[in-house]
User: What shape does this take?
Amino acid sequence: WSRLQKIIASIKYRPLNLVLILSVISLYLINNNLIKPNTTRIVHIFFVSFFNDLLCPYFFLAYANLLLITCGREMTKLKILMLVCLAAGCVWEFVAPYLKHGSVTDPIDLICYVISTVGYWKLLNTIIKRDGEKNDRN
Assistant: This one.
């Protein structure tokens, strides 16, 4: 019960994280079930090759921060967010293909992760500034 209360408190403190998690899940499902099967050419290539990779950091960083807030921490600095996301991206792109059959290495995906990490950071800091919070957490 205590853990659930901490998660609820984290969501109340930073609702952006839950909004992003639910939005990414929705967009992922829409992409895989509606967009990919119904597009062609360059649009199809974008949604098959890059769209989910652009979504991933929003989910990953929002989820990580949702959990970190439960123990009094939060990643708000771009260099920390970038380090965490690129480290995870390197595992996804360079280690996962050895562990999961069918996975392939695509270093271009790291560019998608960087772009979305900057996007998450901008959203987060817009909310922090709007709410007048100090941005001194890591």
Summary: Residues 20 and 138 are 20 Å apart (CA to CA). The helical segments are 2-13, 15-35, 41-49, 51-69, 78-99, 108-131.
